[in-house]
Amino acid sequence: MSFVKKINVNYTDCDSGLKFELPALMTEQGLIISHMRYLAWFSSKSESWKERSTFALRLLIEYIHAVPNSDYEKATQLLKSFTETVLTGTIDYTKLDDPLDLFWKPRKIRDVNNILFHITHYTDFLALQDGYTSSRINPFRKATSYEERLNWCAYYHKQQNVFLNHLTKRDKAKSQLQQVRLIGKFIDSKIENEKVIRFPEEQIERLIYLGFNKNGIIDFKSQAITMLLNYGGIRKSEVFHIYLSDITLNPNRPGEAFVRVYHPEYGKSPDGHYKTRSEYLLSQTHYKPRNKYRLSERLYSGWKNPLLTSRDGYYEVVFSPPHKAKEFLAVWVNYLKFQRVEPDTSYFHPFAFTNSDGKPETIKNYQRLHKRAVERIGLECKKELGT
């Protein structure tokens, strides 16, 4: 019986000896080894990227299972049919049935283009391997004059910012720009000036000082995190990469907090014996950079490569309005004095925010505390409302 199932595996690269924790696809014929090699090759990509690549390939395999007897002379015909099916869905709403037994709902154009990108990127990787010289599932075709002009525009826009761009071979570039993918992206609607949803400004003070106050007991940790998000403008995931040593007194403005957000892997180590935070964590603790955990693991916290302002690999949090830096410092001091649970010496870690057991706090637990605080001040906790 045909099936495809996503599992988690420990993969060891035979050439380098490096070990990776990867998502993998198991079918009735075994693991898809080539995709595991592909993910290992692109190990520097985010966990979300790897999961998305695995999801895209899983959809394609499910589609192949659903149409096993279809006469596709070329894999490109299969891919074209697949992308169109993903876009439109497979459900016949007039009969309330699905002849393919997939029951896929229609997807947004952006989502379909992303799936197509991952399939194409993976098969391009396969085409470069030994024995796969002609297996490119989405090959290039001759571009129309209009497409070629657009390619040249993109090419010159990129080249004008490239150092030593005068050394680029024009003939090679010309041959590349005269080709486009046989199966191209669907044209998505352009959206400009979409309204940004934010937390109601008149309610934010109530959330911090009343929402996180339960029966007279103040949750200083959640107050501090919420202030970093709303007054410091940092991403939720970035909070959980902050070390205890990253929050100090501002040397130039007495009474204010000075908060740095470091790159979780390549930021400067707090210990001078180690160069990077990744090296420090792996050498001195049982933890690793939190962006390197699997997406499904509780300690995972993403990293979207924000603009860093120091060669030490960090950016400084700028509070707006500025006086909130003093309020944050007061809340932070209360958290350290009265509520922070120090990590066990056998499981030491440097992360600033801890749970009741002294382990690193998680996004999921903060979201739960935040939801209760929002409801405590009489609001509904919904992304669409900014709450």
Would you spell out the secondary-structure blueprint of this structure?
Blueprint (H helix, E strand, L loop, with lengths): L3 E9 L6 E9 L2 E2 L1 H9 L5 H20 L8 H14 L20 H19 L12 E3 L2 H15 L10 H8 L1 E3 L22 H8 L1 E2 L2 E2 L1 H11 L5 H4 L7 E3 L7 E6 L14 H8 L29 E3 L7 H16 L23 H14 L11
Antiparallel strand pairs: 1-2, 2-3, 4-5, 6-7, 8-9, 9-10
Task: Note down, in words, how this protein is organized.
The chain is an alpha+beta fold and 387 residues long. The protein folds into three domains: 124 residues, no CATH class; 40 residues, no CATH class; 185 residues, hpI Integrase, Chain A. The protein has twelve helices and ten strands. The chain has a three-stranded antiparallel sheet with strand order 1-2-3. A three-stranded antiparallel sheet has the order 8-9-10. A hairpin with a 2-residue loop joins strand 6 and strand 7. The two termini are 46 Å apart.
Identify the notable features of this structure and list them briefly.
38% helix; three-stranded antiparallel sheet; hpI Integrase, Chain A; 3 domains; 12 helices; 387 residues; alpha+beta
Largest sheet, spatial ordering of strands: 1-2-3
Whole-angstrom Rg: 25 Å
Main sheet: strands, sense, barrel: 3 strands, antiparallel
Number of H- or I-type helical stretches = 12
Uncertain runs with pLDDT below 50, 5 residues or more? 145-158, 162-166
| Helix-strand pattern | EEEHHHHEHHEHEEHHEEHEHH
- Overall spatial form: globular
Helical amount: 25-40%
| Beta-strand share of residues | 5-15%
